[in-house]
Amino acid sequence: MIPIRDHIRTKSFPFVNLGFVAINVYVFVRQLVLADAAAFDFTMEYAFIADRLIESPVDFWFTPFTTLFFHGGFVHFIGNMLFLIVFGDNVEDALGHVRYVGFYLLAGVLSLAAEVVISAQTAVPIIGASGSISAVLGAYLVLFPLARVTTIIPVGIFLMPARLPAVVFLLVWAALQFFSGYLSIVAGPLDNVAYVAHIGGFVYGFLIALTGRRRFLEKFRRRGIYTDRRTR
Fold it and tell me: Which residue ranges form the domains of the chain, and what is each CATH number?
């Protein structure tokens, strides 16, 4: 399923979320315009590799953060940015700008840790914003479960538009990640996707939003400008 937009109005300008998108765009464009060898060196310099970080923590301390803004291809990049644009602005609105920065970056680091510990891929570079974005999805599920999400569903060779409750869209997405993650653990890597990182990020975001839901949404209720059912 491909999300196109949601129907919850934000009450503050999502400059942090747009900033994250802008950094991702800049890094991806730079990967594209560099020659192949230079692009590879650029990516590897900032990619997270557990063994390298353990061996030289002073030299590579920044890689758990910088790796969150790199992508392995056009589909990876476009998919992540669609999810971040559709769901990130509302989560930033609820958490607040400063808290959202910490939430996003910490989610990325913890999702990397989950991937390394469970999958034991310590020598493999792990890049991408998916762990952080998965945390955004977990938080969105808790905070805005009844929001409507316009999505495109592939049916055979056709693309069918649909408008689904966020709880349906996100639970289907989560179920696919958990199933794929389980298979990758018991049968070995299925592809180049770090499913365990997705799961780790999603669980983190879900729990953070669950423990603070009342506080995060109180400002909307106090002003009478948000309920779970208010959409446009």
Answer: 2-222 (1.20.1540.10)
